[in-house]
Amino acid sequence: MMNYLFIVKQLLNNMFLFISFLFIWGQFFRNKKYLLTPMAPIKVRVLCGIIGGVLGGLLMSFIMRDQNFLPIDFRNFAIVISAINGGYLSSFITGLLLSCFSIISLGVNYESLIISVTMLTISIGCGFVSKKNIQKINQWIYMISYSLILQYTFMLIFPSPMAAGGQRFYKNFVIYSFLTIMFGFVVYYLSEYINQSNLMFMKYKEDSSKDFLTGLNNVREFDSLFNNLSRKAVEKKKSLSLMIIDIDWFKKINDTYGHSSGDEVLKQLGEVLKRNCRTFDIVSRNGGEEFSILLINCPSAESIEIAERIRRAVEKYEFMLPTGGKVNISVSVGVATYPNIVGNTGKLRESADIALYEAKRTGRNKVVQYY
């Protein structure tokens, strides 16, 4: 008689382990630096494959054999998850680790070798499916179907009492396939829920630190970066320059061409600033028409050169308006440098503001260094 309690117990054991692991997985890959896709950096995909292999190894401890039923084995889902998220490389690494775990657990014998070959074959097949340009749900269905066919072949090849059970074997395998498909859809939708939650988390996190219009750092992120860089400059006795930039007569642009044109000028100015400072300098929009640039390890003479380069670039640039017209603008720039001009990083912003005010007061379209 079929042991339904055994089936339910195995299914719940595997499901609870998977749910726990997926949420831990989601926490690990919710950082943009470790965003997991088949096109992610190699080190991220290798890490995905290793984590998938660990998951499969944990699932091995929940494989129990019942004399009246096929063993419940969901290790293939570790491979499928790696393939879906990390592509071919992650899939193969997970399959390779599962093969090694099987040999370590069962020893070198006929059964462990067949399992190892099956796991590797599943990983290779799932890796190829991950390369197909089809919807993720279809990839998932193809991978599950492929793994079931291979497992069926394995159970026929391996001389176990269940495989020799004739009609009972086929009946039990149909039930096992149904459980696998059902479990597969639960894992798929849970995995997608976690992935979408991570994407939303990263979007909200980015929105909280980026200016919605220009994509530059916002004032909150500027404050955080300024405090960190100020501390490092003091600790390492390095120079730190701050440049505050303000558009001259920006209100006239809004009044003459409209606020949508003003917004377009702000977006294009952000690009001009990024192109004309050093690649590692930090550009922010502090609000309205005011921008700032943190110049890391930059003495006063070099900061003035960069500021003048930016001023000239803005002056020459023709800003395209949504109406198809063009407009030229100018900027005033205030610069302050720690430690050779300003002796206290806490006074750096105030000093740059004073220099900016002086640039505005004495004619605009100029760079003034605090002294």
How would you describe what is shown here?
- One of its GO terms (cellular component) is plasma membrane.
- The chain has 371 residues and is an alpha+beta fold.
- It has 2 domains: 4-207, Arp2/3 complex 21 kDa subunit ARPC3; 219-369, Alpha-Beta Plaits (2-Layer Sandwich).
- Helices cover 64% and strands 10% of the residues.
- The chain has helices at 4-28, 42-60, 76-106, 110-130, 136-157, 167-209, 219-236, 250-257, 259-276, 300-316, 348-361; strands at residues 240-247, 282-287, 290-296, 319-320, 326-327, 331-338, 367-369.
- The strands form 2 sheets. The chain has a 5-stranded mixed β-sheet with strand order 2-3-1-6-7, sandwiched between helices. Strands 4-5 form a two-stranded antiparallel sheet.
- Strand 2 (282-287) and strand 3 form a beta hairpin.
- The longest helix has 43 residues, at 167-209.
- The mean pLDDT is 86.
